[in-house]
Design a protein that fits this description.
This protein is mostly helical and 228 residues long. It has one domain. It is 79% helix and 0% strand. The chain contains seven helices and no strands. Helix 2 packs parallel to helix 7. It is globular, with a radius of gyration of 19 Å. The two termini are 32 Å apart. The relative contact order is 0.16.
Length: 228
């Protein structure tokens, strides 16, 4: 997929409006669906954080994979367009990761009696978030060659995602296993997957905005070089 200034700017602008409207409508409807979803038998009302907590990680992992894949393309092909895609996705991934790390302790404090537990799943999730914060720091302050170094960081962060997913099943501590999601009853599963779709569309909206900004910055830099 080629994403650049000339070849994707117009199509991106054409689809942005409809996606934005659908996303806004879904987020307006989500609280109603969540409120009418049944309570979980042991956790009660606090379990409804689930409808925000897990979808935020879906969006975060999507950003991580986009950043890692396009980081690899940039690292091995030197395509600056791929670097812009990777950096845009990495910033959005950090944002959604922060959402997950905030909603998780809010849920855990009520369910487990503690804000944070250093089990494998939580620790691995925090590690991936820190890796991508490091990615952003490297890009901003790394100096010459920071783009390639940050691309390697993105690939490393992406490689950790399977460990985040599997850790909840291998090391059974406080965090529920990933098998919970496929076994949700339809009354919970419907609102949950609706929220996942809403968060994925929100990721798309933010990603398109951030990529457009990055493309415009690249175009401005090119104009400065032509003037020199």
């Amino acid at each position: 997929m080629e994403i650049g200034i000339q070849d994707s700017g117009q199509p991106m602008r054409r689809i942005f409006g409809p996606i934005f409207v659908v996303t806004a409508a879904m987020f307006a409807a989500a609280p109603y669906l969540i409120a009418n979803a049944p309570y979980e038998s042991t956790m009660g009302l606090v379990q409804k954080i689930f409808y925000f907590h897990v979808p935020s990680w879906f969006a975060m992992f999507t950003g991580v994979f986009v950043a890692g894949i396009y980081g690899a393309i940039f690292l091995f092909r030197g395509d600056p367009k791929a670097d812009r895609v990777a950096s845009s996705a990495a910033e959005i991934a950090v944002l959604f990761g922060l959402m997950g790390l905030v909603t998780g302790p809010l849920w855990g404090r009520k369910s487990w009696g503690v804000w944070w537990q250093w089990d494998a799943h939580l620790t691995m999730a925090l590690l991936v978030e820190l890796i991508f914060i490091g990615y952003l720091i490297v890009r901003k302050y790394g100096g010459l060659g920071s783009e390639k170094l940050s691309a390697a960081v993105a690939i490393f962060g992406m490689a950790n995602i399977p460990f985040v997913y599997l850790s909840a099943n291998i090391w059974r501590t406080l965090h529920p296993p990933t098998s919970v999601v496929p076994t949700l009853p339809s009354a919970m599963g419907g609102p949950f997957w609706f929220c996942v779709a809403a968060f994925m569309l929100l990721f798309a909206v933010l990603f398109m905005l951030r990529l457009q900004l990055e493309n415009q910055r690249a175009a401005l830099d090119a104009l400065y070089l032509e003037e020199e």
